[in-house]
Design goal:
elongated, alpha+beta, about 20% strand, single chain, about 40% helix
Length: about 160
């Protein structure tokens, strides 16, 4: 994946502040040419450096106020099937392969405690998942963010 430079970072920070800015408005605000802004935005989009818009939708607004993290030990020979099965569970919002005592970290959302219990059972039933542990998030302390990294790359911090 290509690296972001200071100009890319400035563009993304401006869009973070107002995602509806046009290319012309971005160019004026950042003292860049419209063509530079348009070309960079096109490159950012086509290269996959920008996350999909659904990443910004709060799960609470969809009726899922609970967040939990499930760690799982998995049969290493079945990871492809496990990944596909987890991607098929709507309440699974993120999955990471991790090193350490467990193999997979799964972020899930749930409507309530009963729903959380149901989802945990669905995950445990995935062929290749050997055991799970659940940690209920009581409060998000630092939300997913990239602004501090963008500010650092742009030379603003």
């Amino acid at each position: 994946m290509p690296q972001l430079d200071a100009t890319d970072s400035r563009i993304l920070l401006a869009l973070r502040d107002d995602a509806r800015l046009s290319g012309v408005e971005l160019a004026q605000r950042l003292d860049l040419s419209r063509n530079t802004v348009q070309a960079r935005l096109a490159r950012l989009e086509s290269s996959g450096m920008l996350a999909p818009v659904d990443r910004r939708v709060e799960h609470r607004a969809l009726g899922y106020p609970l967040t939990a993290f499930v760690t799982a030990r998995a049969d290493q020979h079945r990871l492809v099937g496990i990944e596909e099965a987890l991607a098929g569970i709507a309440e699974v919002v993120e999955v990471h392969g991790v090193a350490g005592g467990d193999d997979i970290l799964i972020r899930i959302v749930a409507r309530d405690a009963d729903d959380l219990y149901r989802i945990a059972g669905v995950i445990l039933a995935v062929p290749g998942i050997e055991r799970t542990r659940i940690a209920l998030s009581m409060r998000e302390m630092v939300a997913y963010r990239t602004a501090p990294l963008l500010e650092k790359r742009a030379g603003l911090s």
